[in-house]
Design brief:
- This protein has 235 residues and is of the alpha/beta class.
- It has a single domain, classed as Rossmann fold (3-Layer(aba) Sandwich).
- It is globular, with a radius of gyration of 17 Å.
- It starts with a strand and ends with a helix.
Length: 235
Amino acid sequence: MAERSMLEVRGLNAWYGESHILHGVDFDVNEGEVVTLLGRNGAGKTTTMKSIMGLVGTRSGSVVYRGQETIGMRSDLIARAGIALCPEERGIFSSLNVTENLMLPPVIGPGGLSISEIHALFPNLKERAASQGTKLSGGEQQMLAIGRILRTGAKLLLLDEPTEGLAPVIVQQIGRTIREIKNRGFTVLLVEQNFRFAATVADRHYVMDHGVVIDMIQNHELAANMDKLHDYLGV
């Protein structure tokens, strides 16, 4: 069966004020894939995510989601089209409990997970349902941030550094969750520093450096390209 492109990014430039961060980023994400953006700190990975959502100062180029050009759209309309961002800082509201945080984003389409399905993925959230958002551990906050966008019915999920600073057992749980949501038909674009983790969940990897994509490596070719990857990432 031919792969269907869900996201096509072409010549994407982005600026924060006078700072030109992205210099013509090109990549694709096919429906049902998990794709990672790899690169050193400052390579432009997070800015790419924010640019897709329209959350940078200025952007140009082309970002086509399911055949629709979004480069001129407001960020709220991009979200309602079916793209959801789970930011690195997680954005948990301290004044709301776990259930209230989960219920906060609007449902924008069919196919989102119910609260009981989210609890099945993340049992901790069921146990902590009445706890204030900031009383959760870092791992539980990450589960809550992912669970929150799974409810919305968004079909393309942008996950920015979901394993950053988390204990290995929580990283494994996040990995299981990403594989499970892929099986449920979601498409995931993942920014990740830990390429060993990325290799357990992703189909393909784009490598970024200085605001451009410099390579694409299929997951099954990762072992053969390990020396090159070490050079790219400085690890």
